[in-house]
Amino acid sequence: MSEHPNATTVNAMTAAIVEQDRDTLARIFTDDFVLHMRGPVPPAGDHAGAGGLLEAIGSLFELTNGEIKLDQQLCLGANGWAVEFEHSTFGRKGKTLESKNAFVYRFDGDRIAEMWMMFDALPEPAEAFFA
After folding, report:
1. CA distance 126 to 129
2. Which residues have a Cβ under 8 Å from the Cβ of 64 and sit 6 or more positions away?
3. 69-90 burial string, b = 16+ CB within 10 Å, else e?
4. Are 93 and 15 in contact (CB under 8 A)?
């Protein structure tokens, strides 16, 4: 069984984020793309466009000095949607924070229109980690 095209797009998006490849992200996201970041992680909230996504993810890289390990557990695509689950480990000032994260992607055609990024870390340890 081959990978669903939406899962392929999600994996290409992840590579483009790591490389900060705005041109690829512009092709992957719709013009009105919105990231909805939820959970006890700065900067939670809604972020518009590829620039908003890179800014939000960039702040996590700044806070952790790039000490972020991601392990994709599952990525599935379906008509108009994709879901992804990952295990992440953040490092900061000698501390670590582990989180099991869920992502939901809504597609418009072959482009991502919305992305929900939900961090599954307990609030108290996350607040202490990012303080």
Report:
1. 5
2. 90, 91, 92
3. eeeeeebebeeeebbbebebeb
4. no
Task: Encode pLDDT of 54-85 as tens digits.
Answer: 999 999 999 999 999 999 999 999 999 999 99
Q: Are 118 and 101 in contact (CB under 8 A)?
A: yes
Structure tokens at 28: 């992957």
Helix ranges (H only) for the chain are 5-19, 22-28, 49-64, 123-130
Task: Give 21: exposed, middle or buried? Use CB within 10 Å, 0-12, 13-18, 19+.
Answer: middle
The Cα 21–Cα 108 span in angstroms is 21
77-107 pLDDT, tens digit each: 999 999 999 999 999 999 999 999 999 999 9
As given in the structure block, the two tokens for residue 109 are 């055609």
Cβ atoms of 41 and 126 closer than 8 Å: yes
